[in-house]
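User: Please predict structures.

Assistant: First:
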Amino acid sequence: MNPGTGQRVAILGVRNPRKRSLTTPRKSPLLTGVMCLALLYTLLPIVWLLISATKTQQALSTSPGLWFSGPFSLWQNISATFTYGNGEFWHWALNTILYVVAGGGGATVLATLGGYGLAHFDMPGKRPVLAVVIGAVAIPGTALAVPAFLLFSRLGLTNTPWSVIVPSLISPIGLYLIWTYATDAIPTGLIEAARIDGAGEFHIFRSIALRLLAPGIVTVMLLSFVATWNNYFLPLIMLSDPKWFPLTVGLSSWSNQAPSAGGHLIDNLVVTGSLLAILPTMVVFLLLQRYWQTGITEGGIKE
């Protein structure tokens, strides 16, 4: 054996300390402290909401801090929340579900179809469309609420569910995410091979594209779900009949009640209703966590 070969083998058998240092996670006390502060900032309102929901109206008025006081009234508050005002909370919850399914679900479907088409089809005016989509991402929804109200009032659709559902169908950020994700997740050669084999465009989309786009679709669906569930300003200016209120506007109307207006303070019901309103979003995120995490990871990898 050549002596140089043995030396090379010995050298290759020694681990490179520089490479090991690059692969070993580094700990930063500063970043750890910042993350702990961010975690505290995120969890503190939820903890306050949970504690306050266990208090009576009197205990909440006298001791609104981050500690339990008075009798434990969580179950009584939940029961009163669902029965107050002839069951208004039930109607608002059903309205919110309607807006989420029709508006958020429709936005996910349209974003999936549009994003896939922009990623894998050539069409006249494609570049201007992409420019408009990217520009629309930077426009906040509140800036378009008043023009949308004027348009829907001309059409006679204000104070109807359509005034909330139709604007919710447009999701520029969803369309942009599906477009960028479809560009990397679906190889063009795979689509061309399916076309050569005689598969139609709908069959390719249903059998190939949807499976590869699943993580991205779940991510867009979560964003649309949260945006529609927490939508406040649009329903506030579009709706005046309480029977069509979502939870956000309905709970706000409860909060605005005052003894001078012939009502009484129901802060405990508002707090309990807010706690119940955020539970579905938390459950959905926990159930679909692995899907949207996969979508974020795969979307950041390029071949």
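Second:
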Amino acid sequence: MAKTKTTYIRYSAIAPNNKAARTVSSKKTSTGFSLSKVLTFLVVFALFFGIFGAAIKVRASDRAASLAVAEHSLKQKQQLNKELQAVMQANPDITFSISTTNLNSGYSQTFGNDLPMDAASVGKLFTAILFMHEVETGQQSLSENIAGQNAKVVLKQLINQSDDGIWLTLNDRLSHQALTNYAQNLGLSSYNSSTNTVSSQDVATLLQKLYQDKLLSVQHTNTLLSYMQNTNYEQFISPAVPSGVSIYHKVGLINDNVNDAAIITKGDRSCVLVIFSDGHGTQDWDMRAATMQQMARDVISTYFN
């Protein structure tokens, strides 16, 4: 009995103390948890508004930068328009169609005539690109013989040396309808293979798609671009291209039509410049070359300086 009583007394003595301890402990835990929540909330609140404020500043900074770029771009466009219009006004006897595309921004402009004109040998670009496209789809082969020569050699002569006989052979092989359909499928609605007419804008779009590897594989694109350097005619746009700037282009000459379609690149910047011109019988190609070079310098100055 004494043992049982002693045990009872100990339990009774300890139990109230433990309860009090648990109550105190519970109060402390509850109070600590509340403070922790408040502190966490304050920290999150501060972080949120700190990040939010920083984001607002970044967006404001980005917007200011975007506005500055847009303003600069607008001034460039206005200046280029002023310069090219001045050159055309100084040569009223010549019909010009000038199309430019900034390949970094994608922005395009057309000055002068916006209707289709005689493409002359610039039209050979459509033939070469379609042939390469059919090589990639298995309809043609670069290893086959065309007019007694390897197809790759034939394509180089078509673009680099502007061989008219090869052009006729390839056009017959591909068909004029296939050429026109190909251009139509690319959205180049002004091109007509049978009359070899096209707008300068559609040629600019063709070159843009070519350079950006949207028409052919990188390998075949690079092959065609290599044919567009050191060509048989280098006296029109080419002399205006400064050292350190690359040009890939195709010249077209027929009657009094003088055309040059070029991709111009410097570092990570690039543009397309297409100049079609009809002298209506003036036949002063030296003056035409000087005029086209002035236009090219204006464009290069706009896009690369």
